[in-house]
Specification:
Blueprint (H helix, E strand, L loop, with lengths): L1 H24 L10 E6 L2 H11 L4 E7 L8 E5 L4 E4 L1 H6 L9 E5 L4 H9 L6 E4 L4 H11 L4 H10 L9 H5 L11
Parallel strand pairs: 1-2, 1-5, 5-6
Antiparallel strand pairs: 2-3, 3-4
Helix pairs in contact: 2-5
């Protein structure tokens, strides 16, 4: 009797373990992907890339525009349906966030507005700056930071008619067997 109940418990344990691992690998599990905050200038091409990135990754998108006061740019946050105005005070206090992001990316060329945006993010100790504004360079920098997989790179290359270049091909194909033996 004891061995039968032991077998049932063992099978039940395996079933639960496999169910949990199946859920987590399908993206619906207990360990969700990190959530990031992407703060970008309100330029058409930058926003187009940003929308494509948020369609593939969990990202909160904020856009900024130049205002009369360079220390307080005009801000909007995307709520999955439309742009919502965002006050500079709410941005600085992170009151527009229901979850704190794991990483913050600030996109744009050095300017007073960009410095003000970075300073206001004092609640986030590390802010990664991305200076690229052209499409290819922006996708490349975001792809490296967000750890794009092969499918992501291929999708973006096709979408924006970009050429993919495998910069690590030689390193991967190199083998220690190809090198002369440095003996004793």
């Amino acid at each position: 009797m004891k061995s039968r109940s032991h077998k049932i418990m063992k099978l039940l344990s395996w079933f639960i373990l496999l169910s949990i691992s199946g859920l987590s690998s399908s993206g619906m599990g207990l360990w969700p992907r990190p959530i990031n905050l992407l703060v970008v200038p309100a330029h058409y091409s930058v926003l187009q890339v940003s929308f494509d990135v948020i369609s593939r990754r969990p990202i909160i998108l904020v856009s900024y525009q130049i205002s009369d006061d360079p220390n307080k740019p005009i801000l909007h946050v995307w709520n999955s349906a439309k742009w919502q105005p965002l006050s500079f005070q709410d941005y600085g206090a992170a009151r527009f966030l229901s979850l704190m992001p794991d990483q913050v990316f600030l996109v744009g060329k050095e300017s007073e507005e960009l410095n003000a945006l970075k300073t206001a993010l004092s609640w986030r100790p590390e802010v990664k700056k991305i200076s690229a504004l052209n499409t290819g360079a922006l996708i490349n920098q975001l792809g490296v930071e967000l750890d794009f997989g092969a499918k992501d790179w291929k999708w973006f290359a096709e979408r924006y008619q970009l050429d993919l270049k495998d910069e690590n091909r030689e390193i991967r194909e190199d083998s220690w067997y190809n090198h002369p033996f440095v003996g004793e």
